[in-house]
Amino acid sequence: MALTITLAQSLKEIDAASWDRCARGTPDEKGETDNPFLRHAFLLALEESQSAVAETGWGGAHLLMHNDKNELMGAVPAYLKSHSRGEYVFDHAWADAYRRIGGNYYPKLQVSVPFTPVTGPRLLVAPSDHQLELKFELAKALKSVATKTGASSVHATFVTEDDLTVFSENAYLERLDQQFHWLNDSYESFDDFLASLSSRKRKSIRRERRDALSAGISMEWITGSDLKEHHWDSFFEFYIDTGSRKWGSPYLTREFFSMIGESMANKIVLIMAKRAGRYIAGAINFIGSKTLYGRNWGAIEHHPFLHFETCYYQAMDFAIAHKLTSVEAGAQGEHKLARGYRPVIMRSAHFLRDPGLHEAVANYLEEERAYVERLGGVLTEHLPFRKHSQFNNADQNSQRDDDDDL
C-alpha cells in the first residue's frame, strides 16, 4: 500500500467523515468506540472558538495518512506547543533542565486532545486488515515531523495500551500516572452500588447526598435538544469563576460551549444545581458508547458536599440509568477513592530528540513508574467496598486493567 503523510494546520482542511472514520476505527481497551473528544466536531470547536490555536500556544500540526486512492487511512491529533499548559502530564522540569544546558524545549510536538485528560486512541486508523502497520507508520512519522519542524520532542499523552505498545517499539519512553474511575458493576440503582460498600462508607455517602441538597437545592440533567444558550450562559459563569481561581486564565471560550452544544448536543449532559429559581452550580459531562466523561465544573454558591453531588454521585446515577459501564471524573483527586472511584493507571509516550535529555528522562521515568505502581497498590487496599466485594478480593493489577477539571 502506497502511503503519503501530510500535515494539516487546521481541522477545516480535513474531511469530517474521513477523520471520524479513523477515530471510530480504533476502539480502546474498554471497547469504547465513540470517544467524543476525538470527534472532528469537538476538535474543530476548540480551534474555531479560539480556545486551541497558535495564538494560545496550540498550533495545529495534525498528521494525515492517505493511500494511493487519496483515502484517509490514518490521522493523529497533534499540536506544536509553545508551552506546557493544559496537558495534565507535567514536563516543566524537563523543559527547565534542557534550558539550563542551552537547549530550546519549545516548540514541542504534542499528541493529545487539548485540555482533556482522557485516555483514547492517538494513532487513529481506518478499519482495515493493516491497522497495526498503519499505526507504526504514524508513530515513526511523528518523529520525522518533529525533526522537520524543529520540535525538541514528541509527547503522546493519555494513550491506550495498544498505542503505547506501538510507541514503545518505536523508541518512545513510557510514563505512568494515575486517575480515579468508577465502575458500574451492572447496578440497577444507586442503592445497589451503596450495598456493595462497607456500612460506614455507605452511611457517609447517604449523609453527604442529603446535606448537599439540604438548602433547597434540586438537580437537573440537561442533554440533547433541551440544551439552550441560557444553560451555557449559566455554566460558563461557573466555569470562569472556578477556572480563574485554579489556573488564573480559563482555557475555553464562551463560543466553544455554543459550538459543541450545536454539533454534539446528544453527546453532552449538563448536570446543573438550582436553588431559589436560579442555577448555582454545574458540571459538563460527555457521553461515550460505554463511558461518561466528567470534565469541568463550577459554582457561584458554595454548599457542603455540593461538588461531590454534582460531579460524582449524579454522574454515577446517570451512568446507571443509561447502562454506561464507567465514569471518568477527570484528573487527580484521591478524595474520589472514598466515594467508590478506583485507582487506574494512565499512560503516555515521549520521544526527546536530544540523546542526553532522552536518557536522563528515561532514568527519571523508571523511578517514577515504580512509585506510581506502588501507590496504586496502597490506594487499592483502601477501597471502600465490603471485604467480600469483588473489588477488594480481585488481583490489584486486574482491577486497574478493568477499568479544569472535576
Overview of the structural elements:
The protein has two domains: 3-180 and 345-379, Aminopeptidase (3-Layer(aba) Sandwich), CATH 3.40.630; 181-341, Gcn5-related N-acetyltransferase (GNAT) (Aminopeptidase). It contains 13 helices and 15 strands. β11 (268-275) and β12 form a beta hairpin. The radius of gyration is 21 Å and the shape is globular. The strands form two sheets. It has an eleven-stranded mixed beta sheet with strand order 2-5-6-8-15-9-14-13-12-11-10. Helix content is 38%, strand content 24%. It has helices spanning 16-24, 40-48, 92-100, 131-149, 161-168, 190-195, 199-212, 229-246, 254-263, 306-321, 355-380, 390-393, 396-402, and strands at residues 3-8, 58-60, 62-67, 72-76, 78-81, 108-111, 124-125, 153-157, 173-183, 218-223, 268-275, 278-287, 291-299, 326-331, 342-352. α2 (40-48) packs antiparallel against α9 (254-263), α7 packs across α10 (306-321) and α8 (229-246) crosses α9 (254-263). The termini are far apart. 43% of the residues are buried. By secondary structure, it is α+β, with helices and mostly antiparallel strands.
Beta-strand percentage?
15-25%
Number of domains: 2
Named CATH topology of the largest domain: Aminopeptidase
Uncertain ranges:
393-404
Biggest sheet strand line-up = 2-5-6-8-15-9-14-13-12-11-10
Order of helices and strands: EHHEEEEHEEHEHEHHEHHEEEHEEHHH
Quick gist of this model?
This protein is of the alpha+beta class. It is about 40% helix and about 25% strand. It has two domains: about 5-180 and about 345-380, Aminopeptidase, CATH 3.40.630.30; about 180-340, Gcn5-related N-acetyltransferase (GNAT) (Aminopeptidase, 3-Layer(aba) Sandwich).
